[in-house]
Design brief:
Blueprint (H helix, E strand, L loop, with lengths): L8 E2 L2 E2 L27 E5 L1 E3 L2 E9 L14 E9 L9 E2 L2 E2 L2 E2 L4 E3 L1 H6 L1 E4 L9 E2 L9 E2 L2 E7 L18 E11 L9 E5 L15 E4 L7 E2 L2 E2 L1 E4 L1 E4 L19 H12 L20 H13 L5
Parallel strand pairs: 3-20, 4-21, 12-13
Antiparallel strand pairs: 1-2, 3-5, 5-15, 6-14, 6-16, 6-17, 7-15, 8-9, 10-15, 11-14, 16-21, 18-19
Helix pairs in contact: 2-3
């Protein structure tokens, strides 16, 4: 199961902390000015999917053997990264399933190899003590992030005493799967980019992070002398059949929840503005009538209509 824990963020990067039996001297990673190229690169790859919902894989490959035990990008033990959904726009056309303000189980699913030995943390899974996340209560003024922050590190379970052995990520394979849904605001047939943020690409959103990797010696090995040690490959999601005309679907996730029905009633009573959830105002008259509330209730009970 994905852990929903808050990680420290410093200057936009998610930090991971590892313990080793003895102190290590780590080279300073420095600023990244050049992309990784050639066979020596570690690789982080986002896959592609299509439809009204789909599974997007995120895969990692260790770098080439550098003959240094537990050091370098061939012995990566932890990785932190942000995938934009997309993270470069003002809205979020891709969403995750949520339950009671948290990511639903399986929304971000670790592979079997990762789940057995590593912790997987979705830093922005829920909005406790914050005003934005992946599963916001928009009636309380919280905002939906259009990116997902993920950190993977081990060991999954710390010993009660004695030295800690830091496990190395698998040589190659899927680390997590993002089970995404196309919101009703997405345009069918138009690919939505899934972007990994780094200093060399588009500017990352506030509270997102540039990719970073650490080795078994607890050293940051994201870059060497300004050159990145990890090659990034973006993916895409192409919406197919979309929920349309879904009265009461305030956050465009294809469903109508109880809190959204309450919002509609509040708009009808005049205690909230129509702008809080325009989808209730079917006839665009600037108000919410009883027939529009009934339509939203039907969508909550029977699901949103589809094209």
């Amino acid at each position: 199961m994905v852990q929903r824990l808050a990680l420290m963020t410093v200057t936009g990067a998610i930090l991971w902390v590892a313990a080793t039996a003895s102190a290590q001297t780590c080279p300073a990673p420095g600023d990244i000015t050049t992309a990784c190229s050639g066979a020596s690169c570690a690789k982080l790859t986002v896959g592609s999917a299509s439809g009204s919902s789909g599974a997007v894989t995120v895969s990692f490959t260790q770098g080439a053997n550098d003959s240094q035990a537990q050091r370098g990008n061939d012995d990566v033990a932890a990785i932190a990264f942000t995938v934009g959904l997309p993270g470069t726009g003002t809205d979020a056309p891709l969403v995750f399933d949520c339950t009671n303000g948290n990511l639903a189980d399986g929304a971000v699913a670790p592979s079997a190899a990762i789940a057995s030995d590593f912790n997987v943390v979705v830093e922005n899974a829920q909005c406790t003590n914050r005003n934005r996340c992946l599963c916001p209560d928009e009636t309380a003024g919280q905002q939906r992030d259009n990116f997902v922050n993920i950190a993977v590190y081990g060991p999954k379970t710390l010993p009660e005493q004695g030295p800690v052995t830091i496990p190395k990520l698998p040589a190659d394979g899927v680390i997590v799967t993002l089970n995404l849904k196309a919101a009703s605001s997405a345009t069918a047939g138009t690919a939505i980019p899934l972007h990994i943020f780094s200093p060399l690409g588009a500017a990352k959103p506030t509270f997102a992070a540039n990719v970073s990797i650490g080795d078994q010696s607890a050293c940051d090995v994201t870059a060497t002398s300004g050159t990145s040690n990890i090659l990034l490959t973006d993916g895409s999601f192409t919406p197919g059949v979309q929920p349309i005309g879904c009265v009461g679907d305030c956050n465009s996730d294809g469903t109508v929840a109880i809190n959204e029905l309450i919002t509609g009633v509040n708009i009808a009573l005049g205690s909230q503005a129509v702008s809080v959830c325009p989808s209730f105002d079917v006839n665009n008259d600037g108000s919410v009538a009883i027939n529009e509330i009934i339509a939203a209730v039907n969508n909550a009970l029977n699901g949103c209509p589809t094209s």
